[in-house]
Amino acid sequence: MVENKVVVITGASSGIGQATAARLAQGGAKVVLSARRAERLAETVHKITQAGGMASYFSADVTSMEDVQALAEFALKTYGTIDVWVNNAGLMPLSFLNKRKIDEWDQMVDVNIKGVLYGIAAAIPIMERHQSGHIINVSSVAGHRVGMAGAVYSGTKFAVRAITEGLRMELSPTSNIRATIISPGLVETELLTTITDEDALSALKSRGAAQALQSGDIANAIFYAIDQPERVSVNEILVRPTTQP
Ligand code: NDP
Fold first, then answer.
1. Atom in ligand 1 nearest the alpha carbon of residue 41
2. Where are the beta strands (DSSP E) in the chain?
3. Which residue among 4, 172, 212, 236 has its CA within the 20 to 30 Å range from the CA of 85?
4. Hey, which residues does 144 pair with through a beta bridge?
5. Percent of residues, the chain, with pLDDT higher than 90
6. Residues 150-175: pLDDT tens digits?
7. What pLDDT score does 231 carry?
8. Ligand 1 in contact with 89 (CB < 6 A)?
9. With contact defined as beta carbons under 8 Å apart, do 181 and 160 qualify?
10. Is any ligand 1 atom within 6 A of the Cβ of residue 156?
11. pLDDT at 107
12. Distance separating alpha carbons of residues 145 and 157, to the nearest angstrom
């Protein structure tokens, strides 16, 4: 059940994370929103509480284990426990490998992979204490197949799926800690704004536009995974727009 669960969500200042926070709060969860942009988190928390939900926020950069640990401690201090941790923060500066955008490769590895690992590291001790919990990691359709100019991004999203499967195998059988991969197709968010390689942008556009999903469509998938009884472990949900090949 979603109701009364304490849920930490990274990347909650926009897009999928923001919509997930609103959807879960509407279902009675106590949500802790996190990202770097505090003003945007504050605005969303305000909207959620105005609508009768329970929410608070903590500004953190997922590339810093210190920040992520402080986020976990804030959630514990605010709501007493953490039932669900959603590792959603991510970026997608697609580029062709021969452009040698080393800084962007570093950023993707740091946010999309290490950020997820840091979230897992912060959540595991708390969940092991209770012998239950749920870690949800946002991968992508790009975690299943590689698109043009998407070698590094896909590499990070394949890694997220591998890490989540390893987590499930290690923890679920003995501790009731569930692990879920969420793999969205194209969703209308701010994600494309991180692309600086013009050729990658043209390659993306020339693929033909599928009608994108809304962030709320993915929030619904995350809600579903959390809402199942503890005996049910939803291992992965892959959601594409109907018109995406
Ligand atoms: P957005 O760009 O709207 O959201 C990305 C979020 O990540 C923001 O809240 C941003 O907040 C946060 N973020 C980025 N860097 C950091 C950091 N260093 N520390 C903390 N937070 C950070 O994109 P989406 O909502 O689309 O992306 C959410 C997830 O969904 C990502 O993992 C993405 O890869 C995945 N995804 C998206 C798809 C799409 O088509 N949109 C498809 C498949 C997967 P801030 O800048 O305030 O820190």
1. 47
2. 6-10, 30-35, 54-59, 84-87, 133-138, 177-184, 236-239
3. 212
4. none
5. 93
6. 999 999 999 999 999 999 999 988 89
7. 94
8. yes
9. yes
10. no
11. 98
12. 10
- Structure-token pair, residue 192: 């494309």
Instruction: Kindly give the parts of the chain with pLDDT less than 50.
Output: none
| Cα-to-centroid distance, 174 and ligand 1 (Å) | 32
To the query of whether residue 153 is one of the catalytic residues in this protein, the response is yes
6-239 belongs to which homologous superfamily?
Answer: NAD(P)-binding Rossmann-like Domain (3.40.50.720)
**Residue closest by Cα to atom 41 of ligand 1:** 187
pLDDT of residue 172: 85
pTM given for the model: 0.98
| Amino acid identity at 193 | T
Domain borders along the chain are 6-239
| Residue whose CA lies nearest to ligand 1 atom number 32 | 90
Q: Which residue, judged by its Cα, is nearest atom 8 of ligand 1?
A: 11
Tell me how far the alpha carbon of residue 41 lies from the centroid of ligand 1, in angstroms.
Answer: 13
Residue pLDDT, tens place only, 198-208: 999 988 887 76
Nearest CA to ligand 1 atom 24: 15
Helix, strand or coil, per DSSP, at residue 37: coil
pLDDT of residue 204: 83
Q: 92: CA distance to ligand 1 center in Å?
A: 8
ipTM greater than 0.85, yes or no?
A: yes
Strand order from edge to edge, sheet including 177-184: 54-59, 30-35, 6-10, 84-87, 133-138, 177-184, 236-239
- At 227, list the tokens: 């809402």
Closest atom, ligand 1, to C-alpha of 212? 40
